[in-house]
Specification:
Blueprint lengths: L1 E2 L2 E2 L3 E3 L6 E4 L10 E4 L2 H9 L6 H18 L3 H12 L6 H15 L6 H37 L6 E5 L15 H9 L4 E6 L6 H13 L3 E4 L4 H6 L5 E4 L3 E3 L4 E4 L2 H10 L4 E4 L5 E2 L5 H4 L8 H4 E5 L5 E5 L12 E4 L6 E4 L2 E3 L3 H7 L6
Parallel strand pairs: 6-7, 6-9, 7-8, 9-12, 10-13, 12-17
Antiparallel strand pairs: 1-2, 3-4, 4-5, 10-11, 11-16, 14-15, 17-18
The protein binds 5-S-methyl-1-O-phosphono-5-thio-D-ribulose.
The site of 5-S-methyl-1-O-phosphono-5-thio-D-ribulose has 18 residues, from helix 2 and strand 11.
């Protein structure tokens, strides 16, 4: 998508096709800067410290992390080491394990001499496939937004609520939840987005608001707890969120707070949709509440907050009394019964075993 008129992806290789360049998302929204990854450790740190984040982008960075590892040491031992190092960075997004499994499988049947080239080629394919998948999610989701807009008599604006950042910054391009919004915007539908700030790391306030503004999509930032009130007053036409791991039965794990939005949506008859590519589906599990590993992050993300001073300097300040304990659970699970539909690259289905198998029949076995 565009940043000041220039199209960007979130991850790409530079001149020698071996150095991996990313947008450092910890610096947004106040500074747009890129940084280079030249080693396995760089890639692992970028994921763990959230320079890159969002399920599909974590997967893509994991794939390039394997490629960076093969540059210096293509032996079997280093395939295992790279896999474990990258897998340990963040536990919840399915896409990381999916990408690492894919790379490991291919590398183990490739001669040592060819492993570097094979890994870079596959990482690049994973990125391109993610862009295609997210674009298709956009096409299917925009048709949905358009039909809701038509059903409501083409109001002056159609209000979509989203949580966290599931835009192009969370993927390689387009996004999952935001792809339908970008496509609808392109199609001339007057879409307006309610952007949940998404405490504690504020991915909504920092990233979603930034990318929507850079692309010229109408939006309003809201605090996390206001969504229920807006829904009670008819100010939300539909919710669309992303997901980090979706079970084979359609339970959806996403940034903490998503579940409460789904409950409020159900109570108010607001459709609640989830956008995702196939790499986010964990076909091995059905019960999201008990079987999805949920990340707990540092207390400091809750007790402190970063922002820009009037002088333009970015600083971090403490919000709480000294020595306050905080619990920082990063994701929650929305049971399938609260999800109106899953918007995938193959179309929209019910959040259920039958719905997912209908779109991905090759997984039914
Ligand atoms: O902790 P983050 O910022 O990696 O969490 C991201 C999310 O929860 C997104 O909603 C999710 O990855 C869907 S991405 C397209």
């Amino acid at each position: 998508m565009n940043v000041d008129g220039t199209p960007y992806r979130t991850i790409w290789t530079t001149g020698d096709d071996r150095t991996v360049r990313i947008i450092d998302q910890t610096k947004l929204p106040h500074t747009f800067t890129t940084t280079d990854l030249t080693s396995l450790d760089d890639a692992a740190r970028a994921i763990a410290d959230m320079l890159v984040r969002g399920a599909p982008l974590i997967g893509a960075t994991g794939a390039y992390g394997m490629a960076l590892a093969m540059r210096t040491d293509p032996r079997d031992e280093n395939i295992a080491n790279a896999y474990e190092t990258l897998f340990a960075t963040r536990p919840t997004a399915s896409n990381l394990g999916w990408a690492l499994d894919d790379l490991r499988q291919r590398l183990l049947v490739t001669s040592e001499n060819d492993r570097e080239a094979v890994a870079y080629k596959r990482a690049s394919e994973i990125c391109n496939q993610d862009v295609d998948a997210c674009h298709s999610i956009g096409v299917h989701g925009a048709a949905l937004i358009s039909s809701v807009w038509e059903e409501k008599g083409q109001p002056a604006r159609i209000n979509v609520l989203t949580h966290c950042n599931a835009g192009w910054l969370a993927t390689v391009d387009w996004g999952t939840a935001l792809a339908p919004i970008y496509k609808a915007h392109e199609d001339g539908i007057p879409v307006h987005v309610w952007v949940d700030e998404t405490r504690p790391r504020n991915q909504g306030a920092s990233l979603t608001a930034w990318e929507l503004s850079k692309h010229g999509v109408d939006h309003t930032l809201i605090v996390d707890n206001v969504g229920g009130h807006l829904m009670q007053h008819g100010d939300v036409d539909l919710c669309i969120v992303g997901t980090d791991r979706t079970t084979a039965a359609g339970d959806v794990c996403n940034k903490v707070g998503t579940y409460l939005k789904a409950l409020a949506a159900q109570d108010n008859g607001v459709p609640f949709y989830v956008g995702l590519p196939h790499s986010t589906i964990d076909w091995r599990i059905n019960d999201g509440i008990h079987d999805i590993p949920i990340e707990t992050r540092a207390e400091r993300e809750v007790t402190h907050i970063a922002g820009k001073t009037e002088a333009g300097e970015t600083i971090e300040v403490q919000l709480t009394p000294d020595n306050t304990n905080a619990l920082n659970i990063a994701f929650d699970v929305t049971p399938a019964r609260y999800v109106t539909g899953l918007i995938t690259e193959r179309g929209i289905c019910n959040a259920s075993t039958e719905g997912l198998r209908g779109l991905y029949p090759e997984k039914a076995a």
